[in-house]
Design goal:
By secondary structure, this protein is an alpha+beta fold. The chain has one domain (2-196): Hypothetical protein ph0010, domain 1 (Glycoprotein, Type 4 Pilin, 2-Layer Sandwich), CATH 3.30.700.20. 32% of the residues lie in helices and 32% in strands. Strands 1, 2, 3, 4, 5, 6 and 7 form a seven-stranded antiparallel beta sheet that branches. Helix 1 crosses helix 2. The longest helix has 17 residues, at 2-18. The chain is globular. The chain starts with a helix and ends with a helix. The mean pLDDT is 94.
């Protein structure tokens, strides 16, 4: 229920921004929720008889600024403006994914007990900051020690690292049914644990 409401709200904000209208900054069931939030737009690309999803843009915050209704609408509006030549027609042909971020806490980089597929990482090195969402870890296969190497390759040796819990809501097809992704069940993670046992 939360996922469908949230994605509908995010889509409304995107459409409003593309039409030059005021974005919806409140919502009866989202305005009381405080969580970090990331919004991702993926285009459906068809070629050679196959269909794949291609990220057009992603934007978010690890800690709430105000509340979920306000923050998700602002991020969604900013995101659609940041995607070159993105139109309402493109949006209707794209899937929207929203990731909720909760429980941000300092992390020493120890991988024992890390929630693969459920947890993300936020790293800070001087002015450089990096967020690695669980879906990025799975899609790019940066699991185990590879995650720490990836963080260092992107920002240098981190001064501080944090981990956080996520809930990922995802449209199965453009403007379609919304599910909560269960990445911890993914084949990629299962294979990783089989190899490292």
């Amino acid at each position: 229920m939360l996922g469908a409401v949230l994605i509908s709200h995010v889509r409304s904000a995107m459409v409003a921004k593309l039409r030059g209208l005021p974005i919806p900054e409140s919502h009866p069931s989202l305005s009381g929720v405080r969580a970090g939030v990331f919004v991702t737009v993926e285009a459906i690309v068809r070629s050679g008889g196959f269909e794949r999803r291609e990220v057009r843009g992603s934007l978010g915050i690890v800690e709430p600024f105000r509340d979920l209704a306000f923050d998700s609408a602002k991020i969604a509006a900013k995101l659609v403006l940041s995607i070159p030549r993105f139109t309402e027609f493109d949006l209707r042909r794209s899937v929207v994914e929203v990731t909720l971020v909760e429980g941000l806490r300092e992390w020493d980089g120890l991988l024992d007990g890390f929630g693969w597929g459920r947890e993300g990482v936020y790293a800070v090195a001087g002015q450089r900051k990096l967020v690695v969402l669980p879906q990025t870890m799975v899609e790019r296969r940066i699991l185990g020690e590879a995650l720490l190497r990836y963080v260092e390759s992107m920002v240098g040796p981190p001064e501080k690292m944090y981990r956080f819990s996520t809930r990922i809501f995802y449209e199965l097809h453009p403007e379609g049914e919304v599910i909560e992704r269960e990445l911890w069940r993914s084949r990629v993670i299962k294979q990783f644990f089989e190899v490292t046992r």
